[in-house]
Specification:
By secondary structure, the chain is α/β, with parallel strands linked by helices. It is about 30% helix and about 25% strand.
Length: about 280
């Protein structure tokens, strides 16, 4: 299949269409869908981690992905972010960006950010410095050594601090934050990269009830301006934020709909919720 992909903002590749889609430069969400996974299959030593998985995410949508261990949730995120190449199927970011043709760095640059379950922050640096280091700027050595924040960049850091509710912690070393605060800081660091799509892997694991509630509020605030995929096992948390839920099982979509719909789906009860 020939397509146009995006590498650092420039076109490469050739051809005009595949599967009925026309590919042009830039992130095209004219069809209101930001992520297309179609018939994705991935096998590891004979084990099929993904089995003809098809999934669409709307632009600005907050989608929750649930399912038992081994359902394919992590592999799905690995395919979206370029860590794993599918054996078959297509993965598009918008109408024009073929994710299967890009490296992990190129996918991040195109506008997809991923937060893993365990937060990874620069613990010796302040919260403010963590956000500054994560900012989408020229990271070459000479540019980094001579860089100075302008007023717009400082304003953006301040806005992000307010969004993740860490304004009062701006000068505090990140290593002294609570577990929940580190999770919020890492989300803030992703936001500094200006992503259009955020993948959050078990964002409330290990959090207190208060931190879990605030994380839910943050996810709901991010939706609309960003598209957000939340992979989570905490069903109470999912029920509190879910607009649409996708249930994975054995590498495929088992069920999809509102939380009430999937909770009352007999297949979901049998393979997941009934456990």
């Amino acid at each position: 299949m020939n397509a146009i992909a995006i590498r650092g903002g420039d076109e490469f590749g050739g051809g005009a269409s595949a599967g009925g889609r026309v590919f042009t430069a830039g992130l095209d969400v004219s069809h209101k869908t930001i992520l297309y996974l179609e018939d994705i299959s991935v096998s590891f030593d004979g084990f099929k981690a993904l089995n003809n998985l098809s999934l669409d995410i709307d632009n600005g949508e907050l989608r929750c992905i649930i399912g038992p261990n081994g359902a394919g949730k992590t592999t799905m995120m690995d395919v979206i972010t370029g860590k794993t190449r599918p054996d078959a199927g297509t993965a598009f970011f918008g109408q024009s960006i073929d994710l299967t043709q890009l490296s992990e760095a190129e996918i991040a640059h195109a506008g997809i950010g991923r937060k893993f379950q365990k937060p990874t922050v620069f613990e010796q640096h302040s919260v403010f410095e963590n956000l500054e280091l994560a900012m989408k700027t020229d990271k070459r050595v000479r540019a980094s050594l001579t860089a100075r924040l302008d007023s717009a960049q400082r304003d953006r850091i301040a806005e992000t601090l307010a969004l993740i509710q860490l304004g009062a912690q701006a000068d505090r070393p990140a290593g002294l934050l609570s577990h929940g605060q580190k999770q919020w800081l890492e989300i803030g660091m992703l936001l500094m990269q200006e992503p259009r799509l955020l993948l959050l892997d078990e964002p409330v694991a290990g959090m207190t009830d208060e931190e879990t509630e605030r994380t839910g509020e943050l996810c709901e605030t991010l939706a609309g301006k960003h598209s957000v995929i939340v992979v989570e096992h905490d069903m109470d948390f999912v029920a509190g934020i879910a607009r649409k839920v996708t249930v994975l099982h054995e590498g495929s979509v088992l069920a999809e709909g509102s939380m009430d719909q999937v909770q009352n789906d007999q297949r979901v009860i049998e393979v997941y919720l009934g456990r």
